[in-house]
Design goal:
- Three copies of one chain form a homotrimer.
- By secondary structure, chain A is of the alpha/beta class.
- Chain A folds into four domains: 323 residues, Alpha-Beta Barrel (TIM Barrel); 49 residues, no CATH class; 187 residues, Rossmann fold, CATH 3.40.50.880; 42 residues, Golgi alpha-mannosidase II (Immunoglobulin-like), CATH 2.60.40.1180.
- Chain A is built from 18 helices and 22 strands.
- Chain A has an eight-stranded parallel beta barrel with strand order 1-2-3-4-5-6-7-8, surrounded by four helices. The first copy, chain A, has a seven-stranded mixed β-sheet with strand order 10-9-11-12-18-17-16.
- Chain A starts with a strand and ends with a strand.
- In chain A, 61% of the residues are buried.
- Chains A and B meet through helix 8 and strand 13 of A and helix 2, helix 4 and helix 11 of B.
Chain lengths: 641, 641, 641
């Protein structure tokens, strides 16, 4: 894994640059990411360019032996551009313009901004596309951050109407698909369709779902335009985008397919407070991040990059943007590095080289303090670099034991009609991922159109849509299938399937969901001593070939099993989920073992990794290549079979 | 009690209709409600009508022996109408237009929409007014649902100014009535008066109160226009409207006086989460609804219909619109049916015949599932129908033991100037109603202008306005009066009475409220072992003829009694309230007995009903006509003296 | 201390006025405040004046021997003025106009309103400036109440641009100072700078900070305009403004410097719920207010008035504007009076003479009830008046033991970039003030530019800015300095200091803050048995001359000491703060002693005051001039050495 850093020379006096790149190389870094956010410095006014400073910075990096990942600066259009074209600004769900003064102040549906984005991208690609230091391009920055996928602008409304027309062909087909006879919501023309906000009560769920799909398509369109230019002007370079954590506003698989590599911005502590974790877990993992949140995203973006992925921004210390910003535990920065290694990352770079003294991110740590002295993360980066040298070349990450299907469309579907206020398909997927990983199983997050051949076990935590292709691949894969409630609960037009859920799964297990209920927090449905259901429960009718493995105390079946598939009718507690998963995995020939809440393991070829996220040292019975025994809190152990 | 169902033929393929009506009749249903929400199907474009499908549906129902309650479709103006007249849309308190895309997207003050409402109503009345199947008309649907009584539209502002002019005569009178010398708020003309929103801090409480009164009057105006047309064109049919639960935005008594029958939409589980209940009660009654919420509204709408009332929409399973949507307990659907019988309902119909596969209410249960198989409620409807046949004709509901005065104007008054953030006159009325009902007393909710003759006991839980007429009727009724804090605390112009509260009550009990305090949650004022006060306490001065029955530990009098009336100076806990009420009821000659939290009884002629809302079976000492002994959870017992 | 009352004759029939002033004088009051809010009665239409009623009221007061404090009515521009000049209205942070219908509906940046304010002030000053009864003028009312300092109006934006130009000189200097290369936020002209609201994510913290500074300057400008007119037209009269509690939106020191006397509106119970207190403390002090909140503000406004200060509005009973409005304990009204005496107040007047029957404040208690009978506060005012007569002339308030530096700019800095969501420099200052006062130390709240000579101890709870002048005065004062985390953490341009914090303090103690972390609620960092840190912790490097007095269990230094100064690296619990403060105070020669949570003492010359805010009587060993022994709850004791 190559190590690097995000560098913003434009924010610092030029006399620091030479020592910057020298010290980077000395630290063991081999690349820098530059350029993103620098538009106002590259083009201070329309058509007036100042490239020279960036030329010098890139050349300095090159001279120091550093590769360059160049970012397009389109996440921050300058004020002059916004003033010349105020229509590029997005509007919020409340119809208010979202103005200049921070970042991401553009609407994905704006053709005007798309053209500006093409223009600056082409100019950058022309200037640096063939530079020997430049090894990769990053498009824009964190698409959708700050809730910027959805915009209510006039451009978005017009584009949505075109998108609907393309999808449904005729307005009659739209009326039928959405069922608009309900509440006299029928349209006579696509031109009558508005954004699904600002209505008197809940807008139509299919309207909301399609608006999200459309909004995602606009992100794809925007990214594709940059990719096309960069491919042409900078051949042989990887094209990447930096995705985010806990973020589902657009289809990352779709954008990933346009790229060579998926990269993401990993802030284990910054994300902890935003994640679907208990208060106790947020306290326990305050300084390491949750044991599975990072791994979930590593695995997800491995899928998005078709196997190629990087961490392009890595947290080096306290960040500034969470509600509270604790410091990492001693060792955590190194641990996060090895976690990425174990998952097969090609590169990792820290955000950022030096903490800025001003601006929105002034309180965000870097590898250096504002006074240019090494910050707390520095020795841990050194240790990681040394460890990587020690291990030498590493084998590629192979297929995992388990495939977990994660689907953006299903996430949006649940959000469009949750039925229970706290239903969240991402949180469900993460809970299932944690259950598998705590049992020592390795997990590949995969899209619903993935090739499932070769997996022992396929998990469908909340796969609302099971269309024919997925049903066939599930059937043909030979894997055992474990599906949660809501599986196959809607058609793509967002109708309840004609023969009721779980649509697409019935050929594997003959169950029918007759009724659905959601339950407020605090309501618990016990299943004897085995565990309990909260939040969501379905009344299931099962065929004669189906075994009911577990029932609620109220008599309703909870766990149904056939030869090839298992169906869970309710949202079960973590312990019960592990119990079911253990049973299913053992039957599949896997060897699950409960590692407890804190310890996680991964395997890369014949290298074994153990990560201790907990507060207690862990003793292991192996001779270690890296790490000490017992493994301290926030410690890592690596050994070879 | 006749049984029926809400049927939306326009949402289903016509080939299903014939079997629909046959199966309805076979189930024991005798009527359907149709037509509401169907405007876009009746009039797909301005002036182009498609009546035939509705003709066929009505005829089919008729042929199957079903009566028809026809709804006017004005709750859902079609898109073409909104686009032709965007000024019919309401504006929210924030000044934002509330757009098309759900329902109730119109402003009650819009003369343009009033005309459209008249037009479509007249057309429907012409076509179906004389149809032999049509036995009743429902105006619109759920006036005010989704906070649509109050609108900030220009039409509303103009109408408010006219309303003020009519009420006060001169702007000088307005300035005096509201006391606008305070903060230099005086007006020189009615044209200067705006809506009481968007001010820097709290707007004038009398301004807010009058805006609510005005808004209520606009609902009355809107309903009256439809009633007038329907009366003329469809003689002999009942005219009804479907009111809601926990809803106080307009004066339901006033609208009720325009109707023949008050109907309401009873969703015992859907309402539970929104009601003023403890977390423990929301858990305990999760699958039955609160023991008194439904009865409160049955009694309230009996008053609104001058004795005639129906349940026009009844919950058959999980709904979709609450934050969480649990399934009813086995038996609850039948229990709710008998609860309505015991309170004297003429009709009950379930919402809806078949669960829809799409749209905002796709997750709302029906009597049939989306695949047209009977849903869980079906056998309970069968059982209710059979039970009704078994009992034969039932006597009418007579006068109850207790009258509880509930007044919309008082609710608005408390909301306009709560003085303690959580003060809510509806919640107070419900708590008093629960206390009486738990003591086995039957209760009539009545308006403040009701004839009080014949009652043993009259309760005034939070009657802010006690004007001369009410004072006289209280004095002349012969009933004992129990009044809570805030009784007679304001004049109709929203001034503190010249001789301090309780205005209008002093001829019955010589007490004066010298000072008022509100208390944050968690603060408790004990009255020895008798109980405690929370939330609200008044310092009362009492005359020599008044006995102080109970004092707080801090020395302040809490319970004052004269020969004819009792005054409670504070908001007391439920146990203390029952203690006071028991004492007063016994002295009045009633026979209160504590039934505990779960069991409720009602009496209809010589039929006795017992309802078990709790989790424990209840054994009773009667031979039952209906039900089993012991009475199971969610069970009903009926016996005759 | 002179006693008075706020009187609104315009709100009452004139036949009451004569008895009003007679009863005031009989009660021991010697002044009235009149005129504020009376604009619509003085000038019912543009240019038409009705002075006569106010003439008569003032003359009546004069005849009764009462002095008059006259308020300018500019907090409530009449409707005719707003309609003629709608551009005087402010806009909220959401861009919405904040309309007529309550009070403070004007924008401080409006030149049009500034002119109107000058006009009405000049007219009032002409008419009453020389009246023998008039002894003082109050400008406007409660500047900034209801969040009215910040406005988004066009006038504000234009004024902000001028303010920036004046501050930075060139837009290049602005770009550099704010560090706008970050995120391409650079401006080409001051005209491009907008208000820091409505951005996609967090706007620039220096932008927000400067907007607050600018907004504060607009308040100063507005006040100065009235002061200039009043000084000229009414020589010899004090000019005052009534400040508020818990309010930091503008620099009160700066406005105070324009005045002769700082006055404030003291509502001990009304403020309790809004203050940074625990739930337990809010319950414990429900009827007295917090033991230190009132004293904090007395001390603060003593500084704002350069020693001269009044309580111009004092709570006499339940107010109307808090979320809940409890009644004061018996004795509390008198206690609050003596608290002001002990802190050296010149005057106290109650708000208001008589409770109004209508309007927004109808539920606000007065000295009289709405029926004109004495309210509960009356005998306590009598007792205070009698006590003051008994004691005779009192000595002036001298310098306190301790100076606590409180700085509005630092409060805004923390709010502009809190880094931990609940960071609040006012709350921190209040906690430190409480710690000192509970230890029996007397405290002067002082501005950062105060003369510090003569103090034994100077506290810097959260002094973000330590510029050269303050650093020098700290060094030269001879006082021991105790500084909390965040001291000297920013330059005035809101950059992290070049050599890291604590900037300006390093000459007193050689410590460097290498890293900062914030911690969510519930996370505790123990320091053995000594106490704990919550919320905020810094990693500090210290020089060889610095002693580490206390370390966290995780090994980080917490309490650093040099010969002259102490630095606390974390936000410590109240007990630990007292422990540190005791240690430092003893070393300084002071005699701290823990008085417990409820009891507070003050000293005025050789008069000693003891206040019992708690629920338990307190026995003391002195012969009392005022009060009884033991001192009851809400009781006061006064004795002389």
């Amino acid at each position: 894994m190559k190590l690097g850093v995000c560098w913003y020379p434009e924010q610092w006096p030029e006399h620091l640059w030479a020592s910057d790149v020298q010290r980077m190389a000395a630290l063991g870094l081999s690349f820098v990411r530059v350029g993103e956010f620098a538009w106002s410095r590259i083009e201070p006014e329309l058509g007036r360019f100042e490239w020279e400073w960036l030329d010098r910075a890139v050349d300095l990096a090159h001279a120091a032996g550093l590769e360059v990942v160049m970012g397009t600066p389109t996440a921050t259009p300058p004020k002059w551009l916004v003033d010349a074209h105020p229509e590029i600004l997005a509007k919020g769900r409340d119809g208010q313009v979202r103005g200049f003064g921070s970042r991401r102040h553009y609407c994905f549906s704006s053709d005007v901004y798309l053209e500006q984005s093409r223009r600056i991208t082409a100019l950058m690609a022309d200037r640096y596309g063939q530079h020997p230091a430049v090894v990769a391009w990053q498009t824009d920055n964190e698409y959708g951050c700050h809730d910027t996928v959805v915009s209510m602008s006039d451009a978005a409304k017009a584009a949505f109407r075109r998108w609907l027309a393309a999808r449904y062909g005729s307005v009659k087909a739209l009326n039928t698909a959405w069922g608009l006879a309900f509440w006299s919501q029928e349209y006579r023309s696509f031109d009558e369709v508005d954004a699904p906000f600002g209505t008197v009560t809940e807008s139509h769920p299919a309207h909301r779902l399609d608006w999200q799909r459309f909004s995602s398509a606009m992100v794809e369109r925007f990214n594709a335009a940059q990719v096309e230019i960069l491919r042409a002007a900078s051949p042989g370079r990887d094209i990447v985008h930096n995705f985010m954590g806990l973020f589902t506003e657009f289809d990352h698989y779709a954008v990933g397919r346009q790229l060579d590599v998926a990269t993401w911005d990993s802030y284990p502590i910054g994300f902890l407070g935003q994640g679907p974790f208990t208060v106790a877990d947020k306290a326990r993992y305050l300084r390491t991040g949750h044991p599975d949140l990072t791994a979930f995203h590593h695995s997800l973006y491995r899928a998005c990059g078709q196997g190629r992925w990087w961490v392009i921004e890595q947290q080096p210390g306290p960040v500034n943007w969470a509600a509270w910003n604790p410091a990492p535990a001693k060792g955590a920065v190194e641990l996060w590095g090895w976690e990425a290694v174990a998952q097969g990352a090609e590169r990792m770079s820290w955000f950022r080289w030096r903490q800025a003294p001003t601006g929105q991110e002034a309180m965000h740590a870097g590898l250096n303090r504002p006074d240019n002295q090494p910050a707390a993360a520095w020795p841990e980066v050194e240790a990681l670099a040394a460890g990587l040298s020690q291990l030498g070349p590493l084998p590629p990450r192979g297929r995992s034991d388990v495939a977990l299907i994660f689907d953006y469309d299903s996430v949006w579907a649940v959000r469009s009609q949750p039925q229970g206020r706290d239903q969240d398909a991402l949180a469900t997927a993460m809970a299932w991922h944690t259950a598998a990983r705590r049992l020592g199983l390795s997990v590949d997050i995969v899209p619903p159109d993935a090739d499932l051949a070769g997996y022992d076990l396929v998990l469908l935590p909340a796969q609302v849509f099971v269309d024919e292709g997925l049903a066939r691949r599930l059937a043909e894969s030979g894997a055992t299938v474990l599906a949660g409630p809501r599986t196959g609960s809607k058609t793509r037009d967002f109708a309840i399937p004609a023969h009721l859920p779980p649509d697409g799964l019935k050929m594997l297990i003959d169950v029918t969901v007759a009724r659905v209920e959601s339950l407020p927090p605090g309501i618990v449905l016990p299943a004897g001593n085995a565990g309990q259901v909260t939040g969501w429960m379905e009344d299931v009718e099962s065929g004669s070939q189906v075994e009911t493995r577990l029932t609620l105390d109220d008599g309703r079946g909870l766990w149904f099993a056939s030869a090839r598939a298992h169906y869970l009718a309710g949202q079960v507690d973590d312990g019960l989920l592990r119990r079911v998963l253990t049973n299913v995995a053992v039957a599949t020939g896997l060897q699950p073992r409960d590692l407890g809440p804190d310890v996680r393991v991964e395997r890369l070829g014949n290298f074994n990794f153990l990560f201790n996220y907990g507060p207690v040292p862990v003793t292991i019975a192996h001779d270690l290549l890296i790490g000490q025994n017992p493994v301290l809190p926030a410690g890592v152990a690596i050994w070879r079979d």
